[in-house]
Amino acid sequence: MNQNATAQKEQGSNEEEVTDIHDLEKDSLPEGDKDSPEITGYSITFDREKYKQEAAERRKNMYLMAAFMFAFMVLGMASLANPAIYEIDPEILVTINLAFNAIVLLVIPFLLGSVGAVARILMSGTSMIHSGTLVFSSGLMAMFSWVGIKSGVLLSIVAPHLEDKGVSTSITAQASSDFYTMALVAILVGMFSTNLYLFINQRVEHLTQQVNKAAESPNKKSQTDA
Hints:
Elements: H1 2-28, H2 37-40, H3 48-81, H4 90-124, H5 132-151, H6 153-164, H7 169-175, H8 179-225
Helix pairs in contact: 4-5, 4-8, 5-8
């Protein structure tokens, strides 16, 4: 009798521990998932198609990494066997020199275009805290304008229209070598880029406010009628 009583007590204690574990697991779940049939029945849903797609994507990435590793291995072996391949040709050195000089030169229109953008933002009364990206992009536009003028591409596009109006192209070609003219161009491009963005942004905000007011007016009428 004593053995049966102790066995029943142990069985009851095990059942209580199991129910406590289930209660703890349910308490750890969110409120909306406690009463769901998938959680209460401990059923696991398995999406086979999604698993196949993920496996195929992993295999594709693995093959791509293996191809790159093989290519770098071939380059490494070729470089070890032929150290002379790292010698740079004089023409490439000249190109690198020109590129470095161009980067240093384009810093000037970037700064001037940024100054023009800051001046336009201050005139508009917009906060400077949230306009950093706008100032940066306006400086880049000023840089691109300098590249277009210095390369002669912009002049070749505008030259036919200038000749029709009797403007000599030699005057415009000389203007591209004048520093103050180019500085003025960079400042104006920066101001124009900022002005264009501010105009479009204000127009979009105005249209959005009109749409919101038009959407709110029927609701107010329905509330007053009720």
